[in-house]
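From: lab user (bench 3)
To: helpdesk
Subject: output format question, protein + D-serine

Hello, I'm new to running complex predictions and I'm not sure whether the block I got back is the full result or only part of it. Here's what I submitted:
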Amino acid sequence: MSEYNYIKQQDEDIYNAIMGEEEREANGLELIPSENYVSRAVREANGSILTNKYSEGYPGKRYYGGQEFTDAVEKVAIDRACQLFGCKYANVQPLSGAPANVAMYFALMEPGDTVLGMHLEHGGHLTHGHPTTSINKVFNFVRYKMKDVDTGEIDYEELRKVALEHKPKIILAGFSAYSRELDYEKFVEIAREVGAYTVADMAHIAGLIAGGVAKNPFDAGFDVITTTTHKTLRGPRGGMVLVREDEELAKKINKSVFPGLQGGPHMNNIAAKAIAFGEALQPSFKTYSKQVLKNAKAMEEVFKDADIRLLGGGTDNHLLLADVFGSMGITGQEAEVVLDEVGITLNKNMIADESRTAMDPSGIRFGTPAITTRGMKEEEAAKVAEIMIDTLKNKDDQAKKDANRDAIKELCQQFPIPESFV
Ligand code: DSN
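Helpdesk reply: Thanks, we reran it on our side. This is the complete output you should expect:
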């Protein structure tokens, strides 16, 4: 029986939409750096009967009966998360990265307290205190920036000055559009000076940390890490909060997730997380993570050769941010649309010190987690970068775009989305 036979018989609208998405993912290249392809095993767990079960509480301490199997699932997920990231405590219940951050804020602070996080235009995330978010009404957010947008170096002196002035409860490292490594030791040093907790939102680079190709903030002494479980970690959509070693802190986080913020955990999703963590513990995941970086470097080289400005001057991780407006006179929105036409999906993005708007910014953000999962190596990554630039340079030439669409389709056929990684 086909994977979607019941949906097909029962609900034509949703069946058609899923088939459309299958086709889109199979015949196009995904360069959005926060997306990836999960294994069939992860999808099976996510679609399993565990979705039927209510399990408020934590393993061994639930508010409903019938938990012998859900307890087993959650314990495995917790153990594997701790093993992957070298910490003592994990809460695997957050529904995604935003609720993980909100739960963390309420666990570590009182309303009105201050967080020092990365400036949003310099790579920070909405949940790091964007004015439009609800948490911005509850907590006070102050910012640090890059010292030099062309090297990506963080202004640690400014960070320290702001920390001394505002006495934040949390110093937050982490980003969703930044391509360089952070100096976690520096964060810890400053946080100790002002008595703040150190928290890393490693959502984008969790897989790189698990794969051993990016620094682990816990090694520098960070107190807490929040993350999504998809993106480079290649699990189901979801979140989690990790605590290095402080049991009291871990208890606060648990209370803040449930009952503080969420009700029943989604046990199907936690089972899928456990499976993905198991995959990330395999030696093959290290090879995958290394290749993600090599592929990003290969793309960097092609963009540099074409004199297209890269924010941060290049990349140490899985993503790149290109100033296409400054370098080519094409807006991020125009670039997103024209690349979509040839089967390359990425997102428009604000750049540091942006002069345009969020809906039509100067930059594009792209990355290599998904194409690397398809098995592509440096040669193909460079080819994709060349096709991107050729398409942007010839955005009004239909024949060129058709040829590039065919080239992308051919690559997709050569590198189909895999079903299993073990
Ligand atoms: N939407 C995610 C990203 O693309 O980075 C972060 O929440």
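A quick orientation on your result: The longest strand covers residues 114-118. Let us know if anything else is unclear.
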